[in-house]
Amino acid sequence: MALESIDAGVWSLVPAILAISLAWTTRDALIGLFVGVASTGPIYGALRPGADAVGVPPDLVGTPVGNALGALFGLKLIPTLVATAPLFSDAWYVENVLLAIFAIGGMIGLMIRAGAIQGVLEALAERADSPADAEKAAYIAGVAVHIDDYFNCLVVGSMMRPLTDKYDVSRAKLAYYVDSAGSPAARLAFYSTWGAALIGFIGGGLTEAQRQNVLPENMGGFVQGTGESASAVTAEIWPLFFNSLFFGFYSWIALVLAGLVAWQVFPNIFGMGREESRARSGGGVVGPDQDPMISEEIDEYEMSPAADPDWRNFAVPVATMILVGLGAMFWRGSPVVTVPGETSNLLFALGDYQLLIPPAGPWAFNIGGVKLGLAATAALVVAAVLYRLRGDIPSNDEATDAMVRGFKGIFLAALILTLASSIQNSVTVLGISGFVTDWFRGVPAGLVPVLLFFATAGISFADGSSWSTYGIMFPIAIPVAFTTGANLPLVLGAVFSGGIFGDHSSPISDTTVLASSTSGSDHLVHVRTQIPYAVITATIAAVLFVLFGYVLPQGFEVIPY
């Protein structure tokens, strides 16, 4: 059973601070993450010794002895914090993160053994003849595969690693391109898995504004019902969401900056410069004292003597994963694109299946989520069958061995994801959201967007998840926009941007972990080399939020909503 959330105040920051600082100083993400999770139990127990999960006798509650015993007894809550973390308690995460990452790992093992990776390398080598070309290809691939941030990280790193290795581009540089084109690009694509999720987050904030009686009269149609039964009218929110895309400054700047780096316009700075210098001079794409998140067993795994290097052995499983993933998004029981209150036009029908096109008017979208677990498992099965039929993997035993090597190679990433998800659960249980709720009282409207950007960025960096941060911040930010007179689309863009900063830079971010793992980079090296670029991006975004915060009037809108 999940722990009841408490209001721990400033103590809610302790697990994240410990996890990040220890991971940074020890250069071991596992140590930092474990200590961060472990610290939550004593904090929870000391602050809530009378809770059933803690078990301090009632006579001692409220005394120094009771608090001390609560801190001690709180250690037994550590397994609960892990077991009730989103990665395990939510079936979506189990299916679309854990299952997907192991399926991808197994497929990588099969691809290496069947010569698929070697085939891609040979095909790309014909079109790329320098490190600069390899970097451009990695960046373009990251932007192109943007239907989902997890999907991007899982596919692009695995696909581009052989090419960047061939031309001595450091693994940290590859991880930067993978990470910088994952969440930032997916956030800007309304048709991605982020589109429907962000609509839900905005709806939650509008509903909270109605409960607080601050929802403007002209936006009354965005929420139906009242009080606890109130709910957002999803179809009405899309135009507001489209407005926010113009103000997603962090995503736009991150993509532009990564492109400038890939085209050698912006230099390799700080740690990235050292990584690239070592790699180019023949010192290896991974430093001798680094710990890449793909094990040596899989990194040094060799192609089968029976295999024929062929890029199509790579393309077919990846195409399967993309088609299955897109199919889950757009193959729906109801129209994907509609105009509320209007009947869609029938283009043609095949049996009970219909292809509908929307009429003229403001569109609303009904996009499903990418089924990463289904897509990755389908690709794994297709790869195994294809390689056996072609004879590139000559026996079932060899195919099984290849998959097991892939599973083992990706295990470290899965372990870090487990603890990162547990940290997210820990700070949520300690009530980090309540700690920021009162920060904005009396703030001038012009400063509201940039302050919300900083607050969201800080929370997202601390808990490693933009989505959990959005769940915290939108019910705060949208009422604040209405009560202070700040421009609503700009405020939405500030919250979105702050969440992406955490996804892009935090060492406990799931997408940052995935970018490290599939790129074969040492995780903390990836974090250290990427943060300077993330800080530059955030600084430019903050300046823009201040500027637009004072320039844009409250009612400004790009698209009427």
Description:
- The protein is mostly helical and 561 residues long.
- It has 26 helices and six strands.
- It has helices spanning 14-26, 29-47, 64-73, 78-83, 86-89, 91-114, 116-125, 131-144, 149-166, 171-180, 183-188, 193-211, 234-245, 249-262, 271-280, 296-299, 312-330, 372-390, 396-409, 411-429, 432-436, 448-463, 466-484, 488-505, 510-519, 523-551; strands spanning 223-224, 231-232, 337-338, 345-350, 353-357, 364-365.
- Strands 1-2 form a two-stranded antiparallel sheet. A two-stranded antiparallel ribbon has the order 3-6. A two-stranded antiparallel sheet has the order 4-5.
- Helix 2 packs parallel to helix 20.
- The longest helix is centred in the last third of the chain and has 29 residues, at 523-551.
